[in-house]
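If your schedule permits, I should be very grateful for your opinion on a structural question. I have a record of one protein: its chain in single-letter code and its fold written as discrete structure tokens. Kindly check, if you would, that the fold set down in the tokens agrees with what the sequence suggests. I remain grateful for any guidance, and I place the record below:

***
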Amino acid sequence: MKKLLVSGLLLGFGVVSSMAQSGTKSPYSQYGLGVLSDQSQGFNRGMAGLFQGLRSGNQVNMQNPASYSAVDSLSMIVDLGVSGTLTNFKEGDAKVNAKTANFEYATALFRIMPKFGVSVGIVPYSNIGYSYSTKQNVGTSSTISTTSFEGKGGFRQAYIGLGYELFKGLSLGVNFSYFWGDFSRKITVASSDAYVKTLAKEYSADASSYKLDFGAQYQHKLGQNDLLTVGATLGLGHKINADPCLSVTNLDTQTNIVAVSVDTVYNGLSIPMTIGAGIAYSHNRKLTVGADYQWQRWSKESFPIVNEANNKFQLSDNYYSDRHKMTVGADWIPQPMSRRFLNRVHYRIGASYATPYLKIKGMDGPKEMTVTAGFGIPLVNSWNNRSVLNISFQWTNLSAKNLVTENQFRVTIGLTFNERWFAKWKVD
């Protein structure tokens, strides 16, 4: 039964793999690998993505694989999430609104032997999607030049993770991921004068690689009703087997001659080493509070750009900055064993701050501030009361000096099925 179940889950995840990437319309996604995903899920998105020290047998915490060992022998957990986002873009006096609705993630967790949990799933890594244009007069003439910017794509990972409790209190875990994705970024310059050239540039890449993430958690009882959990994670940085290309097309409308040139930077994309640590405190199964810190070493990675000094398409070592992210969050249940419905609802809040990982024209890119709130609503039927409907509300501000300011309002709905599929039924 377990083999059949796992095969079915992997097949299902393969079917939705093309949808597993959440979308964006942010102009900041035209840089680097795009807008980075926080990879949080339904239960912790209401806590601003807090994850390092969260350890529960009722949820899938794929960001720290050491947590998988907490699942019990009777559980089969499947977690699916969708979101809708309303974004306001502001630059000077100009304002624009945009809407997106996306499939976010699909994960599952089960136990194969005592103290040994296994998880599989698909989550986004980054997202690219934008379309806008600018107009300006050419010199002092009446000719208008229109520059259009359009891009799409992103990167994602399908993983299988293992978590094992090495000895009482200490668990170790690892996620093995297939990492893949692509992007296409186009810049087109056209003129209102019918007798001038049209210029088009396209930056593109297609990646297929791996990703390895390690996790550890140590849980210690402070008293009869208090638990303290310390967590840490390490993600390896490396090249992702991509050959970015720059294709330049010139069209002379007078002669109808098209000239195309292509430059390629081989093995030119990479992901950074990531290190994180955090702590979570739980009191009487009612209150959980925690804090996380994460560092991504982007400054050691390169990215291909057109060097203005020699007009060559080549790697730049001064494109990224190290990214630091701090997160705090809390989860409160008034009375977990109460018969009153509202007393068994999870109430969640959180906040996070992240420094930019991009440099735009030599200046720091957008910093990111997020505030969240959410609910975990138990789904009760005659034989199972462990499945949960997770709803979170997220406000995020992206801003940088003299650049576009984004205010995002996102609603995420995650459905966690927690079924006793491996229980043996007895008939009297």
